[in-house]
């Protein structure tokens, strides 16, 4: 993969919630972590957004919800090199995996900051292998 110049330009916390539950006080419980991700583009600003929705659950009931995205501005020449046709732009999975890794690290920090000095602070994001999550290149339609 060739080097791609980019910069993190914005962090958006779209949703954060903690839901009162007994799980915070219990010591031995089976907590599930559900993670969903996706990408979007802003053609005008040459940005790729990486979205994550994270949910800690007990018995399929969420008790911590975090939705956020990071916006990455892509260097103009790199952006233009990704355009495959007049109406499509394609990003290689390696670049997307890298942006997702940064976004997950950001989510880890947001989760800590939002739960600091609360009983929810003991729930943290483990390391997540984004290579297993993002297995293909992504193409997006460009506006005419």
List the helices and strands and how they pair.
Layout: E1 6-18, E2 31-42, E3 47-58, E4 61-74, H1 76-81, E5 83-85, E6 88-91, H2 93-115, H3 130-133, E7 138-141
Antiparallel strand pairs: 1-4, 2-3, 3-4, 5-6, 6-7
Could you give a short description of this structure?
By secondary structure, the protein is of the alpha+beta class. Helix content is 23%, strand content 43%.
Give a structural overview.
The protein is of the alpha+beta class and 144 residues long. The protein has one domain: Bacterial Protein-export protein SecB, CATH 3.10.420. 23% of the residues lie in helices and 43% in strands.
CATH class annotation: Alpha Beta
Domains counted in the coordinates: how many?
1
For the record, give the distance between the C-alpha atoms at the N and C termini, rounded to a whole number: 29 Å
Number of H/I helices: 3
Fold-level CATH name: Bacterial Protein-export protein SecB
Helix and strand pattern: EEEEHEEHHE
Quick one: how many beta strands? 7
CA radius of gyration is: 17 Å
- Spans with pLDDT under 50 lasting ≥5 residues? none
Basic shape:
elongated
The structure class reads alpha+beta
Question: Which strand order spans the largest sheet, edge to edge or round the barrel?
Answer: 1-4-3-2
Mean pLDDT, to the nearest integer, reads 92
Portion in strands: 35-45%
Q: Roughly what percent helix?
A: 10-25%
């Amino acid at each position: 993969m060739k080097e791609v110049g980019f910069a993190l330009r914005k962090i958006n916390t779209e949703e954060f919630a903690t839901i009162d539950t007994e799980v915070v006080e219990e010591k031995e419980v089976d907590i599930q972590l559900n993670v969903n991700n996706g990408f979007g583009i802003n053609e005008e600003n040459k940005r790729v957004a990486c979205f994550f929705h994270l949910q800690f659950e007990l018995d399929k009931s969420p008790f911590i919800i975090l939705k956020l995205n990071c916006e990455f501005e892509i260097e103009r020449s790199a952006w233009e090199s990704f355009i495959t046709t007049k109406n499509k732009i394609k990003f290689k999975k390696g670049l997307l995996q890298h942006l997702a890794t940064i976004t997950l690290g950001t989510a880890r920090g947001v989760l800590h900051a939002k739960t600091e000095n609360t009983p929810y602070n003991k729930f943290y994001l483990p390391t997540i292998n984004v290579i297993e999550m993002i297995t293909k290149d992504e193409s997006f339609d460009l506006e005419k």
